[in-house]
Automatic annotation (TrEMBL):
Coiled coil start-end: none
Family from the record: Belongs to the free Met sulfoxide reductase family.
Protein source organism: Hanseniaspora guilliermondii
Pfam families: GAF_2 (PF13185)
Protein name: Related to Free methionine-R-sulfoxide reductase
Length: 184
């Protein structure tokens, strides 16, 4: 690897809607870039910090108007609560209980939550009133939800099944590449 920042620079910088093929190419690059970085360290904080950055540059590059890309992880002192972890974007709520909000729903059910319009989702927690759509993917370590990936978008329908597929691959990779046992 040359400069680490090159991994952020490599994504498309589109001002238009990407074709499905171009989108898949960017999302595959996201997952592969994460794996390349995680080959150097198992440290959870380092890997989530770099993953947040990759997510931000990948989605901005795809001309998706993301306003938050990041993580909540299980609170080690309370197995039913998520706490704020590395992210890109504006300040966000620090604690989310299982079952609360889109993040808490993903944590409780173990299923990805794809929300095309947060204003039609009663359980949504508005950290930023400008958010219009959201996707949350659970991260499972030894079968247990240990965290979530959360992406927010300023437009309706910001995410679709292709995002879900590749973000679930990223979640699997994050589950197996980090020293979760030290933090949860
Ligand atoms: N909207 C989330 C809360 C976290 S922020 O979006 C960063 C939710 O409903 O769980």
């Amino acid at each position: 690897m040359g400069f680490h920042a090159e991994l952020s620079n490599q994504f498309a910088s589109s001002t238009e809607r990407l074709t499905k093929e171009e989108k898949i190419e960017s999302l595959e690059m996201l997952v592969e870039s994460y794996k390349a970085l995680a080959a150097d360290t198992k440290n959870l904080i380092s890997n989530l910090a770099n993953a947040s950055s990759l997510l931000w540059f990948c989605y901005k590059g795809m001309n998706v108007n993301v306003n938050w890309t990041g993580f909540y992880i299980l609170d080690s002192s309370d197995n039913k609560k998520l706490v704020l972890a590395p992210f890109q974007g504006k300040v966000a709520c620090q604690e989310i209980f299982f079952g609360k909000g889109v993040c808490g729903s993903a944590a409780q059910t173990g299923e990805t939550q794809l929300v095309p319009n947060v204003h039609e989702c009663e359980n949504h927690i508005a950290c930023d009133g400008e958010t219009k759509s959201e996707i949350v993917i659970p991260i499972k370590f030894n079968g247990k939800v240990v965290g979530v990936i959360d992406l927010d978008c300023l437009d309706l329908n910001g995410f679709d099944e292709t995002d879900k597929f590749y973000l679930e691959l990223l979640a699997e990779s994050i589950a197996t590449s980090c020293n979760w046992e030290k933090y949860i």
